[in-house]
Amino acid sequence: MKDLKVPKQYTIKKTPKETLENWYRLMKIGRALDEKAPNYLKQAIGWSYHAPYAGHDGIQLAIGQSFEKKKDHLYMYYRDMLTALAGGMTSEEIILNGISKATDPSSGGRHMSNHLAKPEWNMHSVSSATGNHTLHAVGTGRAIKYYGEKAVSISSQGESSVSEGYVYEAITGADKEELPVIFVVQDNGYGISVPKKDQTAQRKVANNFIGYKNLRIIHCNGKDVFDSMNAMAEAKRYAIEESKPVLLQANCVRMGSHSNSDDHLLYRSDAERNYVVEYDPLAKYRRLLLRYERFTEEELNKIDEEVKVEIKASHKAAMAAPDPDPATIYDHVFSDPYVSEKYPEGLHNEEGEKTKFITALNETLKAEFRNNPDTFIWGQDMANKDKGGIFNVSKGMQAEFGEKRVFNGPIAEDFILGTANGMSRYHEKIRVVVEGAEFADYFWPAMEQYVDTSHDLWRSNGKFSPNVTIRLASGGYIGGGMYHSQNIEGSLAAIPGVRIVYPSFADDAAGLLRTSIRSEGLTMFMEPKALYQDPKAATVVPDDFEVPFGKARIRREGSDLTILTYGNTTHLSLDAAKKLAEEGIADVEVIDLRSLIPLDEETILNSIKKTNKVLVVHEDKVFGGFGGELSALINEKGFEYLDAPIKRVGSPFTPVGFNRILEQAILPNTQRIYTAAKELIEY
Amino acid sequence: MSKTAIIYSYNTQKSKKVAEKVIAAFGEKEIEAVNAEELSKDVLNKYDNFILSAPTWFDGELPNYWDEFLPDLEEMDLKKKKFAIFGLGDQKGYTENFCDAIGLLAEILEECGATIVGETSVEGYTFEASRAQRGDKFIGLPIDQENQARKTKQRVEDWVAQLKKEF
């Protein structure tokens, strides 16, 4: 893109005195806190993580001052203390965050110090994974554009974060979608101790993006207040007026170490440390104020004294604030689910024509999109003429709901999920459904966003709930081999904060999908793709069916043995139970869990109380599979009911082979379930 | 010849040494030294010809003493004045911004109506980009004490000889 000029809106001579004073005061408060923070650690009060910002003062002041609270969206990184202050946070709030008090507006002491946020102002909570909020900023930018607001989404980050692949995904996406996103790269030359020459071939990392079609690149001196203010003002004007992204690289210095767990004496020479201090932005700003006679020494000294008084008062107030209550650790792990009044147990007695699993999903998606205009869906292969999703689950949706609500995502799973997280930050009414990957076992590149999103609610102390449903076509029995036939729910279930559902029948699929979309929070919706068209999974589906989370369904009642299962193996288990009954061997109860997290412990334990024997069956590996948790739960809470050891059937500890012979040798089948059940009954 | 001033920061080490070489080549009596840390409009009003030292800092920035003078400098009418700029840079370590400060300062001076003299050839330097470059010339004299210190003396002497004609 052509190198456009940045107008000089702000200069030392023309900027109103009260503005200059406000900036000076903010910079002094910020620096006082920046220098005071390590003392809290030395006194064992807290603030064990502090990344000093000194040397970034110009650009951080500019980001914060450019941010319009409740209108723009701001994602700060862990060094952005002055950004937060300049954006409106108080010194007391900064200290509350630093020493992790219950009243810390960023996280109530749950997240690391220096991870500043105020979600109610659109100063969003960010993770520690450097630069991963670029994806969130892009998602928010997408919402700003969709809803036609004249605002920007700002992602602030260090230059080393641009080494992360997801940052490229984010910038590529914002460029492609022409979104009003400003990526501010604060370049201090180091990623902890790693110099930028070890990160990128170009010293100015923004120039790595020169070939992007819609992205405007602006360089500024992040140590200079006026250059930074002008650059941010122009970036914001351009992003809003042109609806295009801007990459703003601000050259800064890092006057201190990376953080208080780093010692820059180990890798920086005396000369380097001295000259970066010579370029202290605050000292420069003060010199300019005096040199151009905008302030007298006495006036500035008076502000300095006032700042000291303010910091003292803020310290006192923050020290007196309450600590977090340990009893609250379970608060905000999960968001509030949608409550079904008509189907509180997720059961129905409707009769009529049966609907296939895939049709039930398609019709439910459409019904929910008609019901809520603030629903969106994207993913790979999502919408191209008659194609609607890799398995056509979303067929016809783009035609009905338009390209702005139903669209293709790039082949970038982390981007698909990360922008869903970001878009849902724009407004709590928004509900996003994503096809997380073409197949469940392609989901792994999105794991960093999955982990991040899983703890967004908890981390923000309940202030931000990512209202996202991730749909994944899961499992085997299709001759798909690796990346096309494996199960991942065992691994995902180890991460708190995500509901995981795995239906086996069309009605439950419809009911759980409706509940997922209507609920707040993140839900992983696993679809056993082998059942999409299978007549065995077809059922009558009431138009308004709802299945609450954490409600298992007894698909076959019995008295001799309980089989706990979900997904594809529900049908195999029912077949095995039928055979055992027909042979007069046993009357087996088959429980379709439907929902792994939350888990219906009551139904499980009640059944075992009755049958005294339990077989856990799933398609995923036995070792490390979700059945291990089920077994442990029963051992802990139902041991007294058992007359036999808990037995498990699942895949061996191998990948899933492509050749059908190999697949059959690996995935569970009716015979294996039958044999295991028989052994248990005969125990 | 009109009055000539050489402006450089007395706080510097390497730039100061090169400035001293320039002074020696120019003839001490022909030129007056001014500390760049104490710049003012008066200094620029006082002389007609100037030799400026503008080392490049960081990834292509002016040093503070120039940067902080810009608000005044940008307002000046320099139509009748001539400026020659030399600057230290590192063509290997900072090859994408080699001696940018020379170009940055020249652009501002030109906007004020000043005439820039002392162009030099890019031959003998290896770098990727420089704001000081215009075609096959530099708008001033790049000095690379990090990689080509042995060439400095000759470069300065040739340049000063050229300046004496151009001022």
Instruction: Catalogue the unreliable spans of chain A.
Output: none
Strand order of the largest sheet of chain A: 10-9-11-12-14-13-18
Query: If classified by CATH, what would the architecture of chain B be?
Result: 3-Layer(aba) Sandwich
CATH topology of the largest domain in chain A: Rossmann fold
As for the number of domains of chain B, it is 1
Overall helicity of chain A: 25-40%
Class computed from helices, strands and strand pairing of chain B: alpha/beta
Biggest sheet details of chain B: 6 strands, parallel
From the spread of the alpha carbons, the general shape of chain A counts as: elongated
Largest sheet of chain A: 7 strands, mixed
| Gap from first CA to last CA of chain A | 75 Å
Q: Care to count the β-strands of chain A?
A: 20
Tell me about this structure.
The complex is a heterodimer of chains A (683) and B (167). In chain A, 38% of the residues lie in helices and 14% in strands. Chain A is of the alpha/beta class and 683 residues long. Chain A folds into three domains: 17-320, Rossmann fold, CATH 3.40.50; 357-537, 3-Layer(aba) Sandwich (Rossmann fold), CATH 3.40.50; 553-682, Rossmann fold (3-Layer(aba) Sandwich). In chain A, α20 (626-637) links the parallel β19 (614-621) and β20 (647-651). In chain A, α2 runs parallel beside α7 (225-242). Chain A starts with 16 loop residues before the first helix and ends with a helix. By secondary structure, chain B is α/β, with parallel strands linked by helices. Chain B has a single domain (4-166), classed as Flavodoxin domain (Rossmann fold), CATH 3.40.50. Helices cover 32% and strands 20% of the residues of chain B. In chain B, strands 1, 2, 3, 4, 5 and 9 form a six-stranded parallel beta sheet that branches. A three-stranded antiparallel beta sheet of chain B has the order 6-8-7, with no helix packed on it. In chain B, β7 (133-134) and β8 (137-138) form a beta hairpin. The longest helix of chain B has 15 residues, at 152-166. The N and C termini of chain B lie close together (7 Å). Classes of the chains: A alpha/beta (683), B alpha/beta (167). The interface between A and B is medium-sized, with 19 and 12 residues.
